Amino acid sequence: MNTFHTISEIRNWIKTNKLNGKTIGFVPTMGFLHEGHLSLIDAAKRENDLVILSIFVNPLQFGEGEDFEDYPRNYEKDSKLAEEHGVDAIFHPSINEMYPKKMSATITVHEGTDVLCGVNRPGHFDGVATVVMKLFSITTPDKAYFGMKDAQQVAVIERMVSDFHLDLEIVRCPTLRENDGLAKSSRNVYLSEVEREEAPKIYKVLMETKDVILGDMRPSVQQVKQFLTEKLTKELSAKVDYGEVLSFPTLEHPQQLSGELLIAVAVKYSKARLIDNIIINVNEGRD
Fold first, then answer.
1. Catalytic annotation on 85?
2. Following CA atoms 118, 123, 124, 129 in sequence, which dihedral angle do they give, to the nearest 10 degrees?
3. Domains in the chain, please, with CATH?
């Protein structure tokens, strides 16, 4: 496994391999790898000749009150896991390498950020989009892999790729779940025993909402949203942050239930905020 700390080094490596006809799968991360990251690496490994993993804690996406310095880092462990899962190259640049001087231009995301988690994180997705665009420019991958646990991020990146006519495919990778359906998350360890027993109901409610949408009654958007929020409130002791049904990847409030839809929720327990979502295609589901 190769490790590169500079843009010029990894570009030379990529150029050599592309001249030899190799395809490249790219997995961008901020490190502190977990099972979700590893599933992205495994998917990239299956579908490409070479896999590049980036590890870079991006200061641009941290807002006020979000401590960039305290973000967990463990490069030694990350490197070991990457090698075990067949990564061919790690790109691990410094902040000065990625931002050698003040940026004269950055990406501003105009749509899809005033809903879900973006409501309380102004500027976050601008920082995400800017660094991902830089990483795409550096690594020039054929495919890039993102987990659907953060569906809003996937939507922002997919639309950016389309808007700027980038020549790569964004691969959506499914959310990893425990046997009882709870979405895997590092935050799950902060759940009390009672909360952990209850939390799988989040996914249960998502699936019940899917059944309502695809059922024979043909409900309105408002009826589905009411069902979702009422079920969450009834089934969970957690505070419901949001329960939304949005078009995907535009993340707009739909006038009718058609096409690709995101059903997304966020709830707050005593020491953990959990998010989860599913995507359904109404047209296909009713065939």
1. no
2. 110
3. 2-173 (3.40.50.620), 186-279 (3.30.1300.10)
